[in-house]
Amino acid sequence: MNDRPTFGVEEELLLVDPATGLPVAKNEEVARSARREGVDLQLELTSCQVETTSPVSTTAIELGKHLRELRETAAKAATDAGVSLLAVAVPPAVSEKFPITDTPRYKRIADRFGMVAHEQGICGAHVHVSVPDREIAVAVSNRLRPWLPLLLALTANSAVYRGAETGYASWRSVLWQRWPCAGPPPYLRSASHFDQLVDMMVDSGAILDPGMVYWDVRPSANFPTVEIRVSDVPATVAESTLLATLVRALVMTATEDIARGAEEPQFEEQALRAAYWKGAHDGIGGEAIDVIDGRVLPAADLLNTLLTRVRPALDELGEFDSAARGVAEVLAHGNGATRQLSALRRRGELSDVITECARRTLS
Predict the structure, then answer these.
(1) What family is this protein classified in (predicted)?
(2) Is 42 helix (H, G, I), strand (E, B) or coil?
(3) Measured between alpha carbons, how far is 121 from 211 in angstroms, rounded to an integer?
(4) What CATH number has the domain spanning 7-361?
């Protein structure tokens, strides 16, 4: 097995009115308050969002501690600004459109992409795992593609939008597909092939710059890592930590396969597209598509297959038992989407969803 890679997580979080649940444009105020506590929050496209960035970590326990502290600091800063912090992937309550953060780049994006940008306000989680170089990052990306729909189902946390059930566990992923460079990447022959595609999209105006490469797995633009960005922002720190733990093990497994010359998995692109829809629709409590052989099976079975697939890496890290417990917890009690729907269905009150999401953000 390869050397143990470091990893980290970026979490996009929503700022809402505590009473109505409507997004509130206070990200600059919240960021200033957090900075006084020694935490730098990044501003996102819409001014009702902030993003945390964990320090580089070597163990799941360490990463979980960082994520918990970051959420606590961001939540306190939000409270000081008179708003609530929610780890949700789409706002449960929505105004007509979202205000854009006042930076030149974000204004350019809003001008170019119109309502796609103004209806953004959606939150994901990005897992970075260190790799030796960009060629390895591209090769790892190819081998992770079949698992992306399952990771989406695992973290689904956007079942309620505009005060109603969406019919999807991850409505964020449906909205996200509207961007011209979102979703799964194409098969990439090399790092130079990746660069050629990015240059083509910039030259055509389909994206403004390489920072708008929103593919669900990609070589990071800023760090020596492969970045996996398929997931909704998970509802809890425990679920974010589980996601990152499984992703790192997948990267380690893929890197080992590359080193020993194992064949890449072969599958139809349409199977991947269908698996994405299935993962977004059903979430972890329904069915999934095994992209490699085209079988439809319970998502729980495919998640356990993933756990078995990456067990050598998890054993090397000493994290198999904790990962297995995390998987069992999600399968037994559901994820963010499950809890959103349960909260809404109890009384039909959106306020119950807001309360549940705020509680889970810091649980």
Answers:
(1) Belongs to the glutamate--cysteine ligase type 2 family. YbdK subfamily.
(2) strand
(3) 18
(4) 3.30.590.20
